[in-house]
Amino acid sequence: MSNPPLLSPLMLFGKYMFKSLRFTAAFIYVGLVSFLYLFIAILSPFHPNHVYYIGNIIGFGRFFLGIKLKFLHKERLDSHPSCVFISNHQHNIDVFFGGAAAPKRTVTVGKRAIIWLPFFGMMYYLTGNILINRKNKKSAYGTIEEAADEIKKRKLSVWIMPEGTRSLGRGVLPFKKGAFITAIKAQVPIYPIAISEYHQTLNFNKLNSGTVIISALAPIETLGLTLDDLPHLIKQSEEAIKNEVSRINLLAKNSNYHE
Asked: pTM for the full model?
């Protein structure tokens, strides 16, 4: 039995409004908790565990979107030396997944333009994250040096998304050099983190949108490597994440199918 002529457009509009309201609520939540945490960050700027605490708080925003998270090998995130974490980057909502996965004593590297986002930008800076100007190569290289120094002097880890931009459903994009130069200069391991592709698997019109899988891979050592080893290190890391993304995509699809 076919729907009345007006029913289908009304249903489509209702689904659009439901999805829009969910995203609006999620990002209002991010703005609100950023505003509140900003006062804590002002009182204790650049504390090494700020990102861990605020990241986990922001990570709860995924519930507004009806997203379930599943972790594989999370113990590698919970117990690790100073290192460089790398992960694939798909959309702005990655903030909910990266936040939920953020380990202690870890900061991230983000675009300098983030500082202009109301509340979130200043909170992001004061919680110790590193801002990079990718349009200025000299400035960007200085940021790489800063990140390596932070790792060595303060025994921190740095989380970088080496694609340098959101993939928006285009698969894992080619990796840029910055994260790998940082790891080599600091002589710390790289911990690849694969996030399942959700561009076509999450359905935000459903109460339970679906599942995203985060898989922490075995570390890739850089001890003894030099910048001459950079091409091989990038290729090895990129292949590791691509292969794992392909594998967990199937797991996520099966999980979403059964939910």
From this structure: 0.89
